[in-house]
Amino acid sequence: MPLTNDDKKKKNMPQTPENVLKDLKAKKYAPIYFLHGDESYYLDQISDFIEKNVLQEHEKGFNQIVLYGKDTNLGTIVQNARRFPMMAEKQVVIVKEAQQLADWSKADSKKIIEAYIKQPQPSTVLVFNHKHKSFNKNTTLYKLFDKQAVVVESKKIREHQVGGWIEGYFKQKGYQANFKATAMLTESIGADLGRLQTEIDKLLLNVNDQSKPIDEHLVEEHVGISKAYNIFELQKALGVKDWYKIRQILMYWEANPKSQPLIPTIAMIFQYFCKLLVGHRVTDKSDQNLAKVLKVSPYFVKDYKVAMRHYSLGKVVHIIHYLREADLQSKGVNTRNTSDAQILQELVFKILA
């Protein structure tokens, strides 16, 4: 089904991934899709949907072409796009990793693609999947795409938006998650939407009862976050200077070194104390404002407030210096044959001193 006049008007407005997918599911296909941005998750969703659903399986052999940016050029893409479908209403041409096309800026190539954009083959669905960065919007070529094609820009979501995305994804799958489960996924995975989807899907394979909310225990069990000995428990213990708990965690990690590699551990502790530094420096220390400026779930704000009482601004500055030293040691600088466990133990001792 082609786009209607109303759809064409909509096409020239900024498009959301959700709206584009809605049209695709209604079999409303545009001749050209230009997908770009630094968040690959939505770009791949659209591209993969087109690849799987526009043509029936028996039509794909002659009418579906997948090209890769590093192995092709704009002339070849247009040549394929101008073909007529064989024994089908449509043909699909998908250009994956389109950011690797070497001739985006070549004058001759631009003329070829610009001519096609102005007068595309109606029976072709041409998709450019330009990942990891946005296309230069000041170029004539982009402005032409924006005018004539369905353009979707997908930007990475901010950390404080991750919890809402997780809740929405669970809801889309017919489940609900409690606040702590959402917060735990947010803190452990962050804004990597592709990984979040993978981990949530894996978790849901082990859930049979949709009437019960997903809780933190299910997350701990199925997302590989150890309940007692993960980095978040160490951060919490450092925040309240719980020597006994800290010692337990360090002993466990020393006995199981693969459970918590040193370099990412130091990076996570560094991020934690950087948040304390920011928290000390803001004037408005209300829960709402701290959640916003620290880019954390409101659930964890109380823990940061407790930690700020245990570590003064001056102490936090010194700790960040110790963390930088430990980071260098973890990468082989001035280690004196020190083990990873010893580096971490020395760092923690300095933090707590």
UniProtKB/TrEMBL annotation:
<dbReference type="InterPro" id="IPR010372">
    <property type="entry name" value="DNA_pol3_delta_N"/>
</dbReference>
<dbReference type="InterPro" id="IPR005790">
    <property type="entry name" value="DNA_polIII_delta"/>
</dbReference>
<dbReference type="Pfam" id="PF06144">
    <property type="entry name" value="DNA_pol3_delta"/>
</dbReference>
<dbReference type="GO" id="GO:0003887">
    <property type="term" value="F:DNA-directed DNA polymerase activity"/>
</dbReference>
<keyword id="KW-0808">Transferase</keyword>
<comment type="similarity">
    <text>Belongs to the DNA polymerase HolA subunit family.</text>
</comment>
<dbReference type="GO" id="GO:0009360">
    <property type="term" value="C:DNA polymerase III complex"/>
</dbReference>
<dbReference type="InterPro" id="IPR027417">
    <property type="entry name" value="P-loop_NTPase"/>
</dbReference>
<keyword id="KW-0235">DNA replication</keyword>
<protein>
    <recommendedName>
        <fullName>DNA polymerase III subunit delta</fullName>
        <ecNumber>2.7.7.7</ecNumber>
    </recommendedName>
</protein>
<keyword id="KW-0239">DNA-directed DNA polymerase</keyword>
<dbReference type="InterPro" id="IPR008921">
    <property type="entry name" value="DNA_pol3_clamp-load_cplx_C"/>
</dbReference>
<dbReference type="GO" id="GO:0006261">
    <property type="term" value="P:DNA-templated DNA replication"/>
</dbReference>
<feature type="domain" description="DNA polymerase III delta N-terminal">
    <location>
        <begin position="33"/>
        <end position="154"/>
    </location>
</feature>
<dbReference type="GO" id="GO:0003677">
    <property type="term" value="F:DNA binding"/>
</dbReference>
<keyword id="KW-0548">Nucleotidyltransferase</keyword>
